[in-house]
Specification:
Chain lengths: 186, 159
């Protein structure tokens, strides 16, 4: 692929999968600042290592894999025991510098207060999930990857992906049950 | 299929990740099991909510990545033939060259109009010449044949 095709590929990746990549990064990192660093580093590595991209594989899956590797590397540097053992920060605890640096999208017509409240509760429930369930769930629900693609990104068998998503979703549902009983809107 | 097995498959069913055989068995079970159907609806709702929990990429991050992509060096265009370039960019031909070309075309046109041309040949003259040529050709052919016969030696003729 020449430079123009490479550019097109990355432009499409950013336009069509940018949010999905970021959502996965957030599920790994647990906060906006680290998620942004992960995504920026993953794109930088992908741009640099493009010659090694195997064209028979979906491009976005390759970038998800790089993102996962970036995360593993960053956790090693920080001396964490498990690559997925990350404590999530509450959104309200984010550093002011991050809030200044990153500007969120303008609220759209779907961002009614009730919907925003639901989203907040759901994110709280997601944060409470063990990291080993959170990552495959994020890749499945938020990033839209198949179980097979998830198994390649996380380096675990497909059966493990299925089992982790099943258990994670069950736990997630139990966490949300009280909210449903209180009459929260979906 | 019992309810424990159905529960294991439900999550993958919600994700559309079951093979045809598993899906068929599960659907058969769901048709007759109210409890598993309720579980299924709950998992569908959980999945929908999980999708809603996704964070969007911050605009500043997106812009920063976009700049990195835009900075990719474009490949140098392939050298094209000079004549192709001239066809594509006629304005690149210098004005004096256009003037010379116009002068040549004008002179050629004037010469065509002004120079004397041959008078047309009358039809009866053409026919007469044609008939004469035909007769000459006929005679020449016969003469050639006769001379060939005349050249043939008696021994060959007799042999």
């Amino acid at each position: 692929l020449d430079a123009e095709n490479k550019k097109d590929l990355f432009n499409r990746l950013l336009a069509e999968h940018g949010d999905r990549i970021y959502a996965f990064a957030y599920s790994l990192a647990g906060n906006e600042a680290d998620a942004s660093d992960l995504v920026a580093e993953a794109f930088a590595r992908a741009l640099q290592a493009f010659d090694r991209y195997d064209e028979t594989r979906p491009f976005q899956s390759w970038v998800f894999k790089i993102l996962q590797n970036v995360f593993v590397d960053s956790t090693r540097e920080r001396g964490r025991v498990s690559s997925l053992d990350v404590e999530f920060e509450g959104e309200e605890n984010q550093a002011p510098s991050v809030a200044e640096r990153l500007v969120s999208a303008e609220p759209g017509p779907d961002d009614s207060p009730a919907r925003e409240e639901t989203r907040k509760k759901v994110r709280e429930a997601m944060r409470k999930l063990p990291a080993e369930f959170r990552a495959p769930m994020a890749l499945c629900d938020m990033s839209g990857l198949s179980y097979e693609e998830i198994s390649k990104v996380l380096d675990v068998p497909v059966g493990t992906v299925r089992s982790r998503i099943f258990r994670g979703r069950k736990m997630f549902r139990e966490l949300l049950d009280s909210y449903f009983k209180e009459g929260g809107s979906v | 299929m019992n309810c424990d097995k159905a529960a294991e498959l439900l999550s993958a069913y919600v994700d559309g990740q079951l093979d045809a055989a598993e899906r068929g068995s599960l659907v058969s079970h769901l048709e007759g099991c109210h409890g598993c159907r309720r579980e299924w609806v709950g998992l569908e709702r959980a999945r929908t909510l999980s999708v809603q929990a996704a964070h969007s990429m911050p605009l500043t991050l997106r812009a920063s990545i976009q700049r990195s992509i835009d900075a990719l060096a474009p490949e140098a265009p392939a050298q094209e033939a000079a004549w192709r370039g001239l066809l594509r960019w006629p304005s690149m031909i210098p004005a004096p060259a256009w003037a010379v070309l116009a002068a040549v075309l004008t002179a050629g046109g004037a010469a065509y109009v002004l120079l004397p041309k041959e008078e047309p040949v009358p039809l009866d003259r053409l026919l007469a010449e044609h008939v004469l040529t035909d007769q000459q050709n006929w005679a020449a052919t016969r003469g050639w044949t006769a001379s060939n016969l005349d050249d043939t030696s008696p021994s060959e003729e007799g042999g």
